[in-house]
Design a protein that fits this description.
Number of domains: 2
Structural class: alpha+beta
Strand order of the largest sheet: 1-2-7-4
Number of helices: 1
Number of strands: 7
Shape: elongated
Radius of gyration: 31 Å
Length: 131
């Protein structure tokens, strides 16, 4: 009778030890995956940079370019050249010399090299991030 008890105790102990080893291994894999995801996100977030904000230059490592332009007349549509190499989806105003309102015109006619903009105040200088 005692041998059966010890065998049962040994099997139960082996099961418990095995279970905790499995749990520890699974936890290590989980932590390893979590660290890998965290490292990858840090690499991505630390890799985002706007770079120099000067006209005609690529905006850091973003798929965007910086363009500087002066609107000579008010409410006149101007073609604004860019080197994006694809049709832009939008722009962000990063600098404006006056308090004019800059607005996009004929978005359906934007191309891989030109967008159309206007401003309601003559003489406004603008710097745009085109993406």
């Amino acid at each position: 009778m005692k041998i059966g008890y010890y065998v049962t105790l040994f099997i139960a102990s082996a099961f418990v030890v095995g279970f905790f080893r499995y749990a520890e291994t699974a936890n290590n894999r989980y932590q390893s995956t979590a660290y890998n995801v965290n490292d990858t996100m840090n690499d991505i977030m630390n890799g985002i940079a706007l770079g120099p904000n000067r006209g005609g230059q690529k905006a850091g490592n973003l798929d965007a370019v910086v363009v500087e332009f002066t609107f000579i007349g008010a409410n006149v549509t101007y073609p604004v050249s860019h080197n994006l190499g694809r049709k832009p989806v939008g722009y962000i105003l990063t600098f404006e010399s006056d308090h004019g309102a800059i607005y996009g015109i004929n978005e359906s006619q934007w191309t891989a090299s030109t967008i159309y903009l206007a401003c309601n105040q003559a003489g406004t200088k603008a710097r745009l991030l085109i993406f």
